[in-house]
Design goal:
Elements lengths: L1 H7 L2 H29 L1 H5 L18 H5 L3 H21 L6 E5 L7 H10 L3 E3 H11 L4 E4 L6 H15 L10 E4 L3 H14 L7 E4 L5 H10 L3 E4 L1 H10 L10 E5 L1 H4 L2 H13 L5 E6 L4 H10 L4 E4 L12 E7 L5 H12 L4 E5 L3 H13 L5 E3 L5 H13 L3 E5 L14 E4 L6 H8 L10 E7 L6 H7 L5 E3 L10 H10 L1 H19 L14 H6 L49
Parallel strand pairs: 3-8, 3-9, 4-6, 4-7, 5-6, 7-8, 10-15, 10-16, 11-13, 11-14, 12-13, 14-15
Antiparallel strand pairs: 1-2
Bound molecules: adenosine-5'-triphosphate.
Adenosine-5'-triphosphate binds next to helix 5, strand 2 and helix 8.
Length: about 575
């Protein structure tokens, strides 16, 4: 028996088996791709001009982000160093289970894709990549879940690029792959990764996102964008209105952060988009969190999907390198608490602070700058050009503070963030997971997260624990707070612009609170307005018309039960945003 066991688990045999399996998979993938090439060339190659095989490279116009990636040499070096560091840290610490020993080389990718991945400094695959890339390259529909910062972007972009290459897409064939992202910044980020992957290929890449000039986008779409990254609203706009946008050859649709994309405020657009796109295509849904809506969509619109959940069975849903705490702070002291925190770490750490509304983010940015706390801001009320430049500014910073709404919660890959502060609570555990996922990303990475709750909101911790999120309480030390309440109130009362901004922030904070989906925890009727006003630098609540839903008047929790099979307690998502648009 002992012998038999040894025989079965001999490392050589295991290795042989894996190698054999890999080469079988590789052969299958190549066969599959070849089949697709044979099956579909008509609709595609027929449109290709025979003589003019001009290599049209990267049709996307040069834009602001080019500047951020223009220092080619240092960037390459930095990346190689980073990848080496990631691997070493992973090995030293025993890793946190994100990396595998499987190499990208074993996938049998095209030389040009492989060359790009090498330039990015990656040799071994992460778990989601090792599990999702082979079935995706075989043309299967995939529903993929893996923790934040574990490399999902390459997991779908590598198969996308390989598909375009093997089917020999040219600009004339139009769009073969569409990647839909919920925020503009995430779309820009994914577009840049796609651009890097396509660097040595002839296929074209572009993006269409809200807030950018449509005309420029129309021009690149008409020229032909093979891999298109888009936000839902702007994509729908082009699908419906842009003559010359060829999408009938679409082969692969990816929804990144699928659970977010299927929420209420995107749902209508998504239904229309799906209706307009060709039906025979490969579809893939990715996110760190899933909801029953994603499952429903997978059931009705994916063909025999492969379900991949690399973190199934983990005791915690957040990353091991993440230290998570919460502090119970009386409403009236919240601002002083945040100021004390920022005074302590300002200039030493890279920090993201989450707010619930645009106006509140705007007010706090103005106030902090006024009192000489340097900070950046990203929220939905800003011009896109400013949002984009701020995004790249924060990417480059070693230390600094970014105040943001949930536009910063999903998918963004800011390097080396030390602290995530949730000054205003998230909508639910799912949103919590994505916000804290902006730190401790990748193998061996570390980071800290702090959630600020008022005594009335403490019950939220039970929801976090039920969703397998470990949080420890930090003591609230009132005596250590900066003693500046009177100074702040005076500052606001004497500065009319700040005062107007504070009033708007106060008002939207309350209406935002009222639209909260977990009414059992975040109940606007339990807010003490005098205390809330103090946290916006008012000695008494400003006289404003506040609309708060009456209790019993449709005022109930929209929380969706977390009991579907694929979700497995990841912190299910309630019904999504209500009338009040907060981003
Ligand atoms: N094979 C790899 N080896 C090392 N690092 C990698 C590998 N693949 C991706 N990365 C890096 O890991 C980081 C996180 O990747 P990515 O942004 O794709 O995560 P994600 O799973 O999409 O996260 P989120 O759920 O927050 O969107 C990126 O900086 C990326 O460059």
């Amino acid at each position: 028996m002992g012998n038999l066991d040894l025989e079965q688990h001999s490392p050589e045999k295991e290795e042989m088996k894996t190698k054999k399996k890999r080469s079988r998979d590789k052969a299958k993938i190549l066969k599959q791709l070849a089949k697709r090439e044979v099956k579909e060339p008509k609709s595609i190659t027929d449109e290709e001009p025979k003589k003019k095989k001009k290599k049209l490279k990267q049709v996307a116009t040069e834009d602001e982000e080019t500047e951020a990636i223009s220092d080619e040499e240092p960037k390459k070096k930095k990346k190689k160093k980073k990848a080496k560091q990631v691997e070493e840290e992973g090995e030293e610490s025993g890793g946190n289970g994100i990396m595998t020993n499987e190499t990208f080389e074993s996938l049998g990718l095209s030389d040009n894709t492989h060359k790009s991945i090498k330039e990015m400094g990656f040799a071994r695959m992460t778990q989601i990549q090792a599990k999702a890339i082979p079935p995706l390259m075989m043309g299967k529909d995939v529903l993929g879940a893996a923790r934040t910062g574990s490399g999902k972007t390459l997991a779908f972009l590598i198969p996308a690029v390989e598909l375009l290459y093997h089917v020999r897409f040219t600009p004339r064939n139009g769009t073969g792959v569409i990647v839909i992202c919920p925020t503009r910044e995430l779309a820009i980020q994914s577009y840049l990764v796609a651009k890097e992957l396509l660097k040595f290929h002839s296929q074209t890449v572009g993006k269409v996102i809200g807030g950018e000039p449509r005309k420029k986008e129309v021009e690149i779409l008409v020229k032909g964008v093979n891999l298109l990254v888009a936000t839902p609203g702007r994509l729908l706009d082009h699908l419906e209105n842009t003559d010359g946008f060829v999408f009938k050859n679409l082969k692969f649709l990816v929804m990144d952060e699928a659970d977010r994309i299927l929420e209420q405020n995107f749902e209508e657009d998504m239904k229309k988009i799906i209706k307009l796109l060709p039906k025979t295509r490969q579809t893939s849904l990715f996110s760190a969190t899933q909801t029953s809506k994603v499952e429903d969509l997978a059931r009705v619109s994916l063909t025999s999907p492969v379900y991949i959940d690399v973190d199934e069975g983990r005791k915690e849903v957040t990353n091991e390198g993440l230290e998570q705490g919460y502090c119970v702070v009386p409403s009236a002291k919240r601002l002083l608490f945040l100021l004390t925190f920022l005074k302590t770490f300002h200039g030493k750490k890279k920090i993201m602070v989450f707010f619930s509304t645009c106006k509140s983010t705007k007010f706090h940015t103005e106030l902090f700058r006024y009192i000489k706390i340097d900070c950046l801001a990203i929220h939905g009320g800003m011009e896109q050009s400013k949002r984009t430049s701020t995004f790249f500014q924060f990417v480059k910073l070693e230390t600094g503070v970014l105040l943001c709404t949930n536009v910063g919660a999903r998918g963004l890959d800011f390097p080396r963030v030390d602290w995530i502060v949730q000054y205003d609570p998230p909508d639910d555990p799912t949103e919590y997971i994505h916000r804290v996922g902006r730190t401790a990303r990748g193998e061996g990475a570390k980071g800290k997260a702090l959630l600020v709750l008022t005594p009335a909101e403490l019950q939220f911790i039970q929801y976090l624990k039920a969703a397998k999120i470990p949080v420890e309480e930090h003591e609230f030390e009132e005596e250590k707070l900066l003693n500046v309440q009177a100074f702040l109130e005076k500052t606001i009362s004497e500065n009319s612009a700040l005062s107007v901004s504070a009033k708007e922030a106060y008002k939207t904070y309350i209406s935002g609170y009222d639209s909260h989906s977990m009414k059992d925890v975040f109940n606007a009727h339990r807010l003490d307005l005098k205390e809330v006003a103090a946290s916006f630098c008012f000695s008494s609540p400003p006289k404003l018309l506040l609309k708060i839903h009456r209790e019993g008047d449709g005022y109930r929790s929209k929380r969706e039960p977390v009991n579907n099979k694929f979700n497995r307690g990841r912190g299910g998502r309630p019904g999504g945003k209500t009338k009040f648009e907060r981003y």
